[in-house]
Write a structure and sequence with these properties.
The chain is of the alpha/beta class and 180 residues long. The protein has one domain: Glutaredoxin (3-Layer(aba) Sandwich), CATH 3.40.30.10. The protein is 41% helix and 21% strand. The protein has a 7-stranded mixed β-sheet with strand order 2-1-5-4-3-6-7, with helices on both faces. The relative contact order is 0.20. The model is unreliable at 1-19 (pLDDT under 50).
């Protein structure tokens, strides 16, 4: 009985963790943050990016960690596929801008920007703070339509499915938009 109760408590706490994300249809919180692209620092604006088309916004725990480097590399390799669908990419972490400036060249291959959120204001507004390690961003990806609404989110600490999942969601959104 005690094992079953413990399992139920753990399951409930994990299920709450699994669903921590903005809902589909919610407005994406607008933000401006220091970002780096190809080692050059500038101010990234979500609103400005959305004027050009959909945005794939992904949060990652720490630059240069193994999983985050793998994920950034995969997004960089798929950048042309996102661009073909009219979308732009941006990664966000709590790393400082100097670290992300180097990361933008190495792991991101100078193909998309990464934004610094040292205060965690952006992470908190997107419900992307890792619950078990609140000093880090959770690994969560969002697809945001040009009107600013969330059309898809995917959360998994495994870095290898985010590109596949967000590309599929972007294609579905694009097809649905074309059929209207």
């Amino acid at each position: 009985m005690k094992c079953n109760l413990a399992f139920a408590v753990i399951s409930l706490s994990l299920s709450g963790f699994a669903y921590a994300a903005l809902d589909i249809g919610d407005p994406a919180p607008d933000f401006t943050a220091p970002a780096a692209l190809g080692g050059k620092v500038y101010k990234f604006s979500l609103a400005e990016s959305l004027r050009k088309g959909p945005v794939v916004l992904y949060f990652f725990p720490a630059a240069f960690s193994e999983g985050c480097s793998v994920e950034a590399h995969e997004f960089a390799e798929a950048n042309a596929q996102f661009a073909a669908l009219g979308a732009s990419l941006v990664g966000v972490s709590g790393d400082d801008i100097d670290t992300l400036s180097k990361f933008s060249v190495q792991a991101c291959q100078s193909k998309f920007p990464v934004a610094s959120d040292e205060t965690q204001a952006v992470m908190k507004s997107f419900d992307a703070v890792m619950q078990t390690r609140p000093e880090y961003a959770n690994r969560i990806s969002y697809v945001i339509a040009p009107n600013g609404s969330i059309v898809y989110h995917y959360m998994s600490l495994n870095p290898t499915k985010h590109v596949e999942k967000t590309l599929a969601a972007l294609r579905t959104w694009s097809e649905n938009k074309a059929n209207k």
